[in-house]
Write a structure and sequence with these properties.
Blueprint (H helix, E strand, L loop, with lengths): L1 H12 L2 E5 L15 H10 L4 E6 L1 H6 L7 E3 L8 H18 L3 E3 L9 E6 L2 H6 L10 E4 L2 H10 L7 E3 L13 H12 L4 E5 L5 H18 L4 E5 L4 H8 L7 E4 L4 H10 L2 E5 L6 H8 L4 E5 L11 E4 L3 H13 L1 H13 L6 H13 L1
Parallel strand pairs: 1-2, 1-4, 2-3, 4-5, 5-6, 6-7, 8-9, 8-11, 9-10, 11-12, 12-13
Helix pairs in contact: 2-14, 7-10, 8-12
Length: 361
């Protein structure tokens, strides 16, 4: 028994783990499971492991990962098949030369490593091809919902999949009333607003949201605004040109995390597309004491005590939920309290401990 324990400790002390954080979109400020807070916490709490990080050039240039051991990666889900294939072939040789015992990545595997698949968005599940996960020893999901969705598609991998919760960025926390009032004055002439943050969504779904906002405005005669934080989008601009309430829709392009935190904390509610965005964004809203309206496809599960749900293609249902949230202050406060109550499960300590325990196994 003692000999086995010593061998296990020796393995941990000599273990080299390569963690892929390169799919985080820094330019659009769309964090996924392993953000800089997570990585720094990991190296502090478990120094017995040699941690290597695959990072996109934008991440390296931003400076948020200073002090970590970084290797540059330009792999992307968005690249064409041929471009990904040839780049990946050359890149795998580079990774193999680092000789990691464990690789945690949604894109990179080698023959001589324990390969862990990193699942951090709903889109990955929809795009998975049959047999795509066969070469992975372990699957790490960024939330319980992602795990449940994957098991619905691939029930036979029950033993392989574990949850490592995505953690909110440290900038996201409640702000003073004064800062929120000031932001609303500057952005919305003092009116409250719904915030759609970092959206990557099709125009048909955006049409339904705008219809829902029209119903909300018409039925309640409210001065509420809709703030959409999005990269410049010509299709959306064209759509808004003929929209009845276009003066109440405000388009911004904000990627600075500190500014986004202030913007989020000032919102009446955050609207989130479950199938498109990083799963950490709802937790970041809840860190700011802001409720989340979750727009989702019919197949998604629900945690009704944490989020306000509506089908993403049902404008009337979306409007009903927005109106309920607006008219019932007690309900809104309950959703804020429920959201805050589950945040300890998404702490850096909980997430890093979960990852390390799975690696040790």
């Amino acid at each position: 028994m003692t000999k086995q324990l010593n061998l296990h400790l020796s393995f941990l002390l000599n273990m080299r783990v390569l963690l892929d954080i390169s799919t985080e979109d820094v330019k659009q400020n769309r964090p996924f499971v392993f953000n800089s807070t997570f990585c720094i916490e990991l190296t502090k709490r478990f120094p017995e492991v040699e941690w290597l990080f695959l990072a996109h050039p934008d991440q390296i240039q931003s400076g948020v990962l200073n002090g970590l051991t970084l290797t540059e990666s330009r792999l992307s889900f968005k690249q064409s098949f041929l471009k990904t294939y040839f780049y990946k072939k050359a890149f795998t040789k580079k990774i193999s030369s680092l000789q990691p015992q464990v690789i945690i990545s949604p894109l990179v595997t080698t023959r001589h490593s324990i390969n862990c698949y990193l699942l951090h968005t709903h889109q990955q599940i929809h795009k998975l091809q049959p047999g795509a996960l066969q070469r992975y020893n372990l699957i790490l999901a960024g939330s319980l919902e992602l795990k449940q969705m994957l098991l619905e598609k691939l029930p036979h991998i029950q033993q392989q999949i574990k949850v490592v919760p995505a953690i909110p960025r440290e900038e996201f926390k409640p702000q003073t009333d004064e800062s929120s009032v000031q932001l609303r004055e500057e952005l919305c002439n003092g009116y409250q607003f719904f915030l759609l943050n970092n959206v990557v969504v099709s125009i048909p779904k955006m049409v339904q949201l705008l219809k829902a906002f029209s119903f909300f405005k018409k039925r309640l005669k409210s001065g509420m605004r809709l703030v959409i934080n999005i990269k410049k989008n010509e299709e959306l601009a064209t759509l808004l040109a003929t929209y009845k309430y276009k003066d109440d829709v405000i388009l911004i392009e904000e990627t600075n995390a500190a500014h986004l935190a202030i913007l989020t904390a000032a919102a009446y509610a955050v609207i989130h597309y479950a199938a498109y965005d990083s799963y950490v964004l709802p937790q970041e809203a809840q860190c700011c004491n802001v409720p989340v309206v979750m727009l989702q496809p019919p197949s998604h599960g629900q945690q009704t005590d944490l989020y306000i749900y509506a089908p993403e293609l049902d404008a009337d249902a979306i409007a009903q939920q927005l109106m309920l949230l607006y008219k019932d202050e007690v309900y809104r406060n309950n959703m804020i309290q429920n959201g805050a109550g589950h945040l300890p499960a998404y702490s850096a300590e909980a997430a890093t401990s979960a990852l390390f325990s799975f690696i040790k196994q």
